[in-house]
Amino acid sequence: MGNKQRVVVIGGGAAGFFAAIRCAEVNPHAEVLILERGKEALGKVKISGGGRCNVTHACFDATELVKRYPRGSRELLGPFHRFGCADTVAWFEQRGVRTKTEADGRMFPVTDNSQTIIDCLWDAARKAGVKILLQQRVEGILPPSGKQPAWTIRTKEQLIYADQLMLATGSSTTVWEWLRELGHTIVPPVPSLFTFNIKDPRILGLEGISVPNATTTVEGEKLTDGGPLLITHWGMSGPAILRLSAYGARLLADRQYNFHLLVNWTGQSSDAAKALLENCRKNEARKQVLPHPMFGLPARLWRSLATAAGLYPETKWADVTKLQFQGLFAQLTAARFPVTGKSTFKEEFVTAGGVSLREVNFKTFESKLLPGLYFAGEVLDIDAVTGGFNFQAAWTGGWIAGEAMGTR
């Protein structure tokens, strides 16, 4: 290698590109290589956000931002103060990519095209002098030793040596096995961000119906979340479900994805919803119940829930029995649904698990056990809810690791 420092990044995704670019910009004299096993780099960037790329989220307070991370919130607080969402926006804007914020806080390039982000990253890498080698399947890594003071990366074709090595390999079980053999603790991976499989007559035929503010709870647990909920062909999805799956990733895996889900459809507390129902019963006595939805619920969902409570099409509020009232209240505020499995939310597929966070220095994203080895992205036991937060962790980790490698 001569006197020129060589930095190798394994993994051509968001974290890998960001780290390589930052390293090469900080140290223009270093030789920086990205090894990507696929025919194309940045594959996840391409498909994210329905092909629009949800770059980050308009959450500019680090203490608020970390609340979106079921795993890694404590460790990411310092890094987010150094490179947060505003820094990501500025980084792309300085390179000609303008972003926009949608009503829910998600941020996209104004082009609504993920290729804009991909082109920007490739251009920045080229300008910084980063070499990107595609179709480079790494078959093993060896740490420095007395005989060989550099990291050794073995591919099918050759041996590559590196003064510093970064793994941005996502949820690769092969890489985790290498790291386990090198002494790192690997937290067992389980899926995060998935939808719930539910077969129930109350939602049969209601595919595509959504509720803007439902509260979802895993029965018997303190696990609860809220937000938009979408009824699908296979059960339920939407942020209220996906966030619940993220925070409950390990618990639900332990239950083999068989549990009961409680849904409050009303967007109100139980007490407030009950008061509104009682008020309707008192003041709208002559009105039929089924044709007049409450709480802004879609008419077909309201009718299904009211029917499940024992009400008939002609039932008026004046004729609602105590038992029917209690049933309607329960269907609206604590409807109980059997969950019998999960479906991967492919666009935002995320895995909980990876390198134990106790073994990483989050000032540099360097291994505490193996000097000169760095991590960023999903190779770590860090994951977030949907909305651009997983990408933000990748940008932050990549930028800080790249800086550390470039200034080492």
Give an overview of the whole structure.
The structure is a single chain. By secondary structure, this protein is α+β, with helices and mostly antiparallel strands. It has 2 domains: 6-190 and 348-407, FAD/NAD(P)-binding domain, CATH 3.50.50.60; 195-344, no CATH class. 34% of the residues lie in helices and 24% in strands. Strands 17-16-13-14-15-12-18 form a 7-stranded antiparallel beta sheet. Strands 6-2-1-10-22 form a 5-stranded parallel beta sheet, with helices on one face. Strands 3-5-4 form a 3-stranded antiparallel beta sheet. α1 (14-26) runs parallel beside α6 (114-128) and α1 (14-26) runs parallel beside α13 (389-407).
Secondary structure layout:
Layout: E1 6-10, H1 14-26, E2 31-35, H2 43-51, E3 56-57, H3 62-65, H4 73-82, H5 85-94, E4 99-101, E5 106-109, H6 114-128, E6 131-133, E7 138-142, E8 151-155, E9 159-162, E10 164-167, H7 173-181, E11 186-192, E12 194-197, E13 210-218, E14 224-231, E15 235-237, H8 239-247, H9 249-254, E16 259-264, H10 270-283, H11 299-308, H12 322-333, E17 335-339, E18 342-344, E19 350-355, E20 360-361, E21 366-367, E22 373-375, H13 389-407
Parallel strand pairs: 1-2, 1-10, 2-6, 10-22
Antiparallel strand pairs: 3-5, 4-5, 7-8, 8-9, 11-19, 12-15, 12-18, 13-14, 13-16, 14-15, 16-17, 20-21
